Records
---
Amino acid sequence: MAFIGCAGVPNRYGGFEAFVEYCGPEIASKVEEVFVTCDAGLYEDVSTIYKGMHRIFINTPANGWQSIFHDLFAFFKVFKRSTHIVVLGVSGGVWFPFFRILCDILKKKLIVNVDGVEWRREKFSFFKRCVIWIFDRLAQIFSHVVIYDNVGLKDFLINGGRRKSVFIAYSGDHVIRKTEEVVVRQGGLTICRIEPENNIEMLILGALRAGLKNYKIVGNWNSSKYGINIRNKYSAYPNLSLLDPIYDPMDLAKIREECAVYLHGHSVGGTNPSLVEMLFYDCRIICFDVIFNREAAKDAAEYFRDVDSLALEINATEKIIKNRSIIREMYKSKFIANEYLKLLQ
């Protein structure tokens, strides 16, 4: 089995990379070989084996407009070496008719994980959203299997894609817990990309209105004008800490364990990996009220629609954190890996 379309392992970017890093080794333990293509520009260590997976480096960046060509080059790097090719995302959708012909000739299986509803993201121009919409459709039409990570995404699949689709979520049990230490939970936390779809300003205003002390937002503030402007606007508030990305697992575990409430503003499907990971901690979780978040967290979270309702939820003292043992089962890496292994049958 081969995974292409992500930035690579170990995780240096986001959800797809976290999935491959933590579920890939479990898959590799059950099959002969697992290949993962990586963005060569992100790694100093270019060793070919990582946790039992074969890394193949592509010199073309895996993100931005160049991802269209990254996926093309990645496909040919793994085509002869794997019978099942899983494309993570639809950036290479324009090539899927060609991919499908080659796969059919040599009886290989072309699988796509469509990620979220990328063509609805406000950060893209109208032209880019149209292009992504076309790529998404092409990927669904010409793949053998369509994977969606959130039940709320099924309504966004075309009829042809829905008939050959399978629901497989992200894993979250790879997070580190610091349960051996005495933890005093206080303040709030958000970990996300700093994008309009994550409702950053709404989260900040709700936290300020509620008087939430020591609210930390961890994200890529310097990657866009949007992030730079918001950071400049609110950085002087003493109860806000607007932090750069944190990748060290122990540092992430510390701030997650210590927060009393996690605020999640993700609004465009499907499942956000940060939310799944927080379900394995014991703080309160308050999510923006869209179907994607409700399907992901169900009754393990509370929900808000605007600044006022967010402030009310933050200050609600009668809320009791429900037992999350059942919902955690569906997000365990071993379970997720087995769902992918079923695609080999």
---
Amino acid sequence: MDAVLFKAAAEGDIGPFENYQTCLDQLLTPDENTILHVYLGNQSREPESTDFVDKILEMCPQLLLQANKKGEIPLHLAARYGHSNVVKVLIDRAKARPTDPESGVTEAKKMLRMTNEEQDTALHEAARNRRSHVVEILTKEDRPELSYSANVHGETPLYIAASSWGQEQEKVIDEILANCISVLDYGGPNGRTALHAASAVGDHERLVTHYAAFFSTWLNISVVKVLLEYDASAAYIAETEKKRTALHIAAIQGHVNAMKEIVSRCPACCELVDNRGWNALHYVVASKRTEVFKECLRIPLLDRLKTKKDNKGNTPFHLIAALALKLDNWLLVFRFTEEGIYGLNKQKLSIKDIYNGRLAEIQEILESLEDVGSGPFGCRRRIVLEETNEKNKKEKDASNKA
């Protein structure tokens, strides 16, 4: 495809192509993008007219399903960029084609399920880019048969939608839940579900305003509510690797409102622990948010977790004892702790023993708290920031005293 034709395609100028009707499918860019790929990828907003797409497909019907090097057909691009009117045209064109006599699958449904090199369908693209109008069209068009497929990263469209943020996020999720058969059986990489993702995602606009005061992200609770209303069993699904549930994820992020929502709808999920035996309250301690920890103790189901031991026999308060030596805000929590009810860990240490300076054990616990901050839903950045601020505060206090 030379520069003149590329420019014409990008601008939706049909004229230059009228002399190429017999070989339009041979006009390709180095990435094997066709005229339609170029056109759809260069529209900054939804085209007011679908004339260009209609006329090109009239001239060369095979362009409808012709893929580029990445395996993307025009429907992938129309979905990605939110060109809902073009999506309708492409579907109507596919519907006009005869049904495969062997499979009985219509060309429209075949097109809707076509995947690119990463196994993304057009619905994956629409969900990732929060194109709610396109999601509505795609899901309604393929029902009632549409069930979930994951891409090469293990992501379903619902998982992708729940992992993102933005004004259209809730509507995208609503459309998927309303029109698809299976949404939470398998949702994301490493065994995570859409609920795991929703429990971790924050609203970045609010983060800018409130970060300095709270060192926290703010969760869109409505997404968690929608997912739990649709299938509460999602709260009991654990990741493949670390065996964390949505409650663990909400806890490490300090999202106490999400924790309340999950616990109120799925109380038994409080019993679930990760691969180290940590319950949700261990994770709250690891978040280093004392205000969240205190709030959790006001929730009876979470308060009962304070005496539960992990695989090494440490209760959440054993972790607090180690933190109390390092962070002043946890020292205040520790000072008002009733010691006897927490017992001894497998090293036969009480919380008082740890606080009184068994350095090897303290270092091991502190390292375990750091380790929980790694990974896609971790909080290492917040831990580093809090420790840096704590260090700066102490240095400032020492300077003032001097």
---
Amino acid sequence: MRIAIVHGFYRSDVPSGENVAVTAQVAALRADGHDVTVVAQHSDDRMARSTWPVEAAVTTITGHGPDPTAELAGAAPDVVHVHNLYPHFGTRWLDRWEGPLVATLHNFRPLCAAGTLTREGRRCTDCVVGSPWSGVRHGCYHGSRLATLPLAVAHRGGAPVHPVVRRADRLVAISERTIDEYAGAGVGRERFAVVPNFVPDPPAPAARDGQERWLFAGRLSGEKGLAELLAAWPAGRGLDVVGDGEQAAELKAAAGPDVAFLGALPHDVVRALPGHYRGVLVPSQWPEAGPPLTYLEAIAAGTPVVACAGNGAADDIARYGTGVVVGRTPTTTEVAAALDTVLARHDVLAHRCRVVAAEMYSAASWVGAITEVYRDAIDLRALAVTGG
């Protein structure tokens, strides 16, 4: 099958599970024998220009901007798979492209300027049930009312008429939670297929030393929930924090002596870490579009996960038994009990993690599921063209 992937890559200095997932998906499709063309824009290139803020605002509001159709036409794909267009690609080309088109909704950007459905650490659907101008009032995108304004203008019609959502022949969600959120905003459930992300080349089981240490890996920002976790972290339990972000200084100041901040590390280093820890912590406060990459890499290494209720990892733990779920804002007693449970049942949980990763989150299962979606999109587009 000839497949074209369209993706705007986020900054390389900011950890992006979406970038990692797209790169892995391209490699998996090629390994399966498909002819894959990648049409990309990169934040590292575009943000270096002094005119970038104006370009991004104009593209977001008007839909005019970089247009991939010339490259797509040259590739003559059987299907186009769109990941992230914002804010690097225009959207006007979507209606001009006549071929089958699939879109993965990695986050909640068509519903929420922040893309997370949270504000100040709490769930927020003001822009879904009310008006996107709520996001402007609160400066939900990067803490700026001015930066949020283009998104509010672009999303004023709601998710069902968002250019990507409206045009796609098939929509891909990485969890049922994503479908629930979009269906609640008026997007038909029947348009979705659930295709979870995967972990390529899971690491071999690592030899853990006798120390009790736990791992958090991710961006140091409010929606990741590390502040809430540190407030409840039990004394005497070692925690390593990998990552960087706007909350770094604040979190370091609030952390106790048992918490070590290791800074940002390359992804190939980070993905090898979970196997050396007793468990991985996923305290995210935003609902997440699905199980995060940190969680998938942990269970692939046979490392149990402790997650806060309401996020994508917690959903998966409740479904498959790959760790322990604590409250959304847990107490110290609750966190300590969860850590003790993981230690007491570590061998059983580790085995369960590896089984779930192999059965549910392998490259082979992803390729099989996504190619079925591609075939559906091709059939649906053929019906639409013939008036069926």
